[in-house]
Amino acid sequence: MNYRYYLPTDILFGPGVLDRLHEKPLPGRHALVVTTSGKSVKRLGYLDRLRRELTLSGVGYTLYDKVCPNPTRDNVMEGAALARQAGCDFLVALGGGSAIDAAKGMAVMAVNDGDCWDYVRDGSGKGLPLKEKPLPLVAIPTTAGTGSEADAGCVISYPERKEKVSFGTPWSFPAISVVDPELMCSVPPRLTAYQGFDVLFHVVECYISRAATPLSDLICLDAARRVVTFLPRAVAQGDDMEARTEMAWASTEAGMCLTHSSLTAQHSLEHSLSGFYPELTHGAGLILISRAYLRRCAGQEAYRERMTALAQAMGAEPSPQGVLDALEKLMTRCGVAELRMSQFGITRESLGAVAEKSVDRRYANERAPLSREEAQAILEQSYA
Ligand SMILES: [Fe+2]
Questions:
Q1: Residue 322 gets which letter from DSSP?
Q2: What is the pLDDT of residues 233-271, one digit of tens each?
Q3: What spacing in Å lies between the alpha carbon of 16 and ligand 1's midpoint?
Q4: Distance from the CA of 99 to the center of ligand 1, in angstroms?
Q5: How far apart are CA 341 and CA 327, in angstroms?
Q6: Quick one: pLDDT at residue 168?
Q7: Which residue spans of the chain are classified as CATH 3.40.50.1970?
Q8: Ligand 1 centroid vs 283 CA: distance in angstroms?
Q9: How far is the CA of 202 from the centre of ligand 1 (A)?
Q10: Nearest to 162 by CA among 11, 358, 319
Q11: CA of 246 to the centre of ligand 1 (A)
Q12: pLDDT per residue over 278-307, tens digit each?
């Protein structure tokens, strides 16, 4: 085993912790504050609370509030241009994974010339080396989903090319993450479920991945147990602070797993699917694919031991089939068992192209090699 432990983010965790941000030295004097184009961070007063913290810290800011739900290359380039123009020396992302991921991209492009697809390594990206380290970032998640607060990854879409790719750099860890479960209480039930399943699949994939490490093994099983126990409660009652806190920690744990292990082809397939169909929410896409994907894993000897341990952590019979049973039960309890691809406008005819475009570095993390044909079969079995 060759392994490097590296997680340089200062994580402040707990209900109400946003109001203590000013007690921390911030990594700059003028921030680009990045939020999504939705109204919720303003309406719920989160942006005002952040402004107060920045003022108390003596830090100026410029607001970029146009990030789309699936952040795009245009978002990244526009925000980066604004950061340059306003003389920003760090960024603060307030919002879900979209705001944080977009800000990670902007942090790179605020100090590197050219286009962000010059540096992207997947899809049609040129994979050029960065000349400058990204600006530092403070991440303040308002959802329990991507784990972007504890990893260096970000996912950016290029709609004109139907591409949705990972654009992490070794320097893209947030300098500070403020994980305040109070900010997550207003997420509606359906989105809470989608985001919670994203957390689950991060840890399921990182656990069965060939890239798993002793640390990710510990954290993955712990996070899987938390999701199974607390996600149905967070979906049923949004202001259940214990459930929100447990889910916030599970999401952060999942981010750590993304750092100490790596995802598998299920995420590649979903990124390709929502690259083709940008209206498809990431978590919903994963839910749609997951039964067929995990059924394939459950049927292969290479995954038997890991699937058995996962089933146990998820409170099911200790067998590979136990993971599928626990998954079905969780979907039912969270009200997402009946999702269908056709509801999102996905056509069966497009699945070959989706499978083709999904093949990326994560396929190498499968314990039994997954061919493009098998990947297409997973999508076709998932279609209804
Ligand atoms: Fe994900």
A1: H
A2: 999 999 999 999 999 999 999 999 999 999 999 999 999
A3: 26
A4: 14
A5: 18
A6: 83
A7: 10-184
A8: 7
A9: 6
A10: 358
A11: 18
A12: 899 999 999 999 999 999 999 999 999 999
Delimit the CATH 1.20.1090.10 region(s) of the chain.
189-382
CA angle (90 as vertex; 89, 94 as ends), nearest 5? 150
The residue that leads in pLDDT, 14 or 70, is 14
Quote the ligand 1 centre to 203 CA distance (angstroms): 10
Report how far ligand 1's centroid is from the alpha carbon of 29 (Å). 32
- Per residue, the 3-state secondary structure of 22-51, as one string, reads HHCCCCCCEEEEEEECCCHHHHCCHHHHHH
The predicted model gives 103-113 an average pLDDT of 98
Query: In angstroms, what is the span from residue 27 Cα to ligand 1's centroid?
Result: 28
The confidence score (pLDDT) of residue 4 equals 82
Segment 202-218 shows an average pLDDT of: 97
Neighbours of 307 (CB within 10 A): 25
DSSP strands (E only) in 192-278: none
Question: Considering the domain 10-184 in this protein, what is its CATH number?
Answer: 3.40.50.1970
Structural contact between residues 199 and 186, judged by C-beta atoms closer than 8 angstroms = no
Q: Which fold has domain 189-382?
A: Dehydroquinate synthase-like, alpha domain (1.20.1090)
Instruction: Tell me the CA–centroid distance for residue 267 and ligand 1, in Å.
Output: 6
pTM: 0.95
- Name beta bridge partners: 13: 179
Q: 148 C-alpha to center of ligand 1: Å?
A: 9
For 218-225, what is the mean pLDDT? 98
